[in-house]
Amino acid sequence: MIRTILVDDEPVILEDLKLMIKDFKNIEVVGAYTDPQEVLQELSILRPDCAFLDIEMSDLNGIELAAKLSEKYPDIEVMFITAYNHYATQAFEVNAIEYILKPVRPERLAKAITKISQKIKYRKSLAHVSLKIRSFGNFEVFVGHKPIRWTRTKPRELLAYLLQNDGKWVDKYKICDDLWRTLKPEKALASLQTAVWAIRKTLSQSGCMAKINYAHDSYQLNLPETEWDLQQFDDAYDIFLRTGLAERGKEAELLYTGEYLNGEDWLWADLIRESYAQKYRNLKQRLY
Q1: Which residues does this entry mark as bearing 4-aspartylphosphate (predicted)?
Q2: Where are the alpha helices (DSSP H) in the chain?
Q3: Mind listing the pLDDT tens digit for each residue in 52-64?
């Protein structure tokens, strides 16, 4: 059963939507609210799988609410139900799965709920699939044993950039300055949105559970359990420095299969590349 919450500051519309959803046997409304702040206060009790949100609400609008929901529950599926069509770009920036215009037609709602059901079922079926990332030598991402193939270079670069920030939120204007500094601001932002969309699509089609979150004009890469050579190197290297255990030092040595993001002319990676090269030189000196 899919647990869902409904949020709309118009009680009549909220009740109508609640009644429409009751016709679907695979979805349970665990909360219906006119006050977005109340939703946030009760979120840990509700544990929703998806949320149906109005956009134009007082105090906290639906876009802002979606961002806050995603911060607490990165896997939540968000569907916007609104009377306005000019929020579509903002809606899909926060990774909304659907955007439905009011008045809601039953057949449109049915199509959206089917889409949500299929996505949640698919995600659960992939829970066991491992993710592997190689940052030393050639940059590669594997889902299971299959490498992800990229049709364009910028989405691949953006993924590596977000990985380098290791779960931290990165301001979208900083991303544009680092990756699209030669473009005008509006063109750079459009290119960023296109690249984010391409990453989401590519990772989803590959069966990867990684997710790019968006909130407060910033992006964050949220990873499932991952085998990442850079993290493994850091762990082994730090233990070797603290304890002097040679086996951990040799483990770190084996993990360093080449320079960080070798062969990529990404200026934002230069300092990190040199930092790891220095760590490797230090490691070799201590080992031998």
Answers
A1: 54
A2: 11-21, 36-41, 43-46, 62-72, 88-93, 106-125, 153-164, 172-179, 185-205, 229-243, 246-255, 270-287
A3: 999 999 889 999 9
Give per-residue burial for 215-252: e unless 16+ CB within 10 Å, then b: beebbbbebeeeebbbeebbebbebbbeeeeeebbebb
Based on the fold, state whether residues 194 and 81 are members of the same structural domain: no
Domain of 32, in residue numbers: 2-125
| Closest to 79 in 3D by CA, of 112, 108, 125 | 112
Alpha helices in 136-228 (DSSP H): 153-164, 172-179, 185-205
pLDDT in tens, 84-96: 888 887 887 887 8
| Spatial distance between the Cα atoms of 8 and 81, rounded to a whole number of angstroms | 9
Residues 135 and 236 in one domain: yes
Same domain, 153 and 281: yes
Query: Are β-strands 131-134 and 50-53 bridged in parallel, bridged antiparallel, or unpaired?
Result: unpaired
Same domain, 176 and 261: yes
| Domain match, 89 and 166 both | no
Domain count, the chain: 2
Q: Which residues 6+ apart lie within 8 Å of 256 measured at CB? A: 136, 233, 276, 280, 283
